[in-house]
Design goal:
Shape: globular
CATH class of the largest domain: Alpha Beta
Number of domains: 2
Strand content: 15-25%
Order of helices and strands: EEEHHEEHEHHEEEHHHHHEHEHHEE
Distance between the termini: 18 Å
CATH topology of the largest domain: Nucleotidyltransferase, domain 5
Helix content: 25-40%
Oligomer: single chain
CATH architecture of the largest domain: 2-Layer Sandwich
Amino acid sequence: MRVIGLMSGTSYDAVDAAAARLTPEDGGETLRLVPLGLVSAPYEDGLRDALAAALPPAPTTLADVCLLDTRIGQAFAALAARADRELCAGRADLIASHGQTVYHWAHAGRVHGTLQLGRPAWIAEATGRPVVSDFRPRDIAAGGQGAPLVALVDLMLLRGRPGTPAALNLGGIANLTALPPAGPPVAFDTGPGNALMDAAVRELTGGRLGYDEDGALAAAGRVHEPLLLRLLAEPYYRLPAPKTTGKELFHHGHLRAALDGCAPLPPEDLLATLARLTARTVADALRPLRVTEVVASGGGTRNPALMAMLREELPPRTALLDSAVLGLPAAAKEAYAFAVLGYLALHGLPGNAPGCTGARGPRVLGSLTPGRAPLRLPPVPARPPARIAVGPAP
């Protein structure tokens, strides 16, 4: 099948569409993933501003939510149609849309609900293809955290690698998946990835800029240790896994509260401190797992200052690699992951790793919106694939 995975992360700067050809091999034990490419499109300024204005802790209205659900759905639909045309020659079989997370209802270590906007009907109408969407709620209904859902795909990609490999995604929120040679796998959100750095840049520039391009500000600054210690006092970092978080916690108000009582800092020092916070909390989360390599992806990998700090914080013999070593570009890995989750859903196969999310058991994830043709579900395979092999078949 040719499947297009659609993704917009917690940085909400753009929508990514990655297309893959997915084929079962070895009696279904392996899923062969042939990457067909990635296309991206930024949210247009008015939509991005409306989304930023509606996110917690800002108040919003149901009218705003309806408007955002429609306009985000239309943005996803336009990119899905483009991806089908440019990457699949108009022959995509399925669209898998993560949507745009606007709220993740976590309290006292439990997740009670989640909300992703981007109405899938717009995607189905624009492409004529069936759409799998709303992946997270079923895992939550089964007692799970609903995140990180990419953990199942990470585990399938990491199997067979030596030592104790870990996958790290540095989006707005950072999450990791680790696969020890003995013992159960582990996955959880470590805390902010780019979220606080982006919030600081927007505040410093009055919204003109959304992020620290090439980590230039962070690279030019010095870490302010008192502020770093104040930020590290956040209780979330000491919660046991499984756990998830989001911008409901790590937003500009969180940063402002930490800055109260601090003398004004140069922008460079503030960004250096926030980059060190991300690097420190990621490394602190990885250290007890005794990982031997970290395979990184996400927007944070394009920040050289952050990556340099992460190398400093990790134990000396822990390799820090780009997800390209797995055959998937760092910018596209999450979109490819949701293409795989969509494929699993259509085939009636579980899309969660219950030991990682805390769900009561494996669950088929997502809701299905039919395309133009009559909906015909493929037969359910005898077993789910255990690993992913990336690239053309040998």
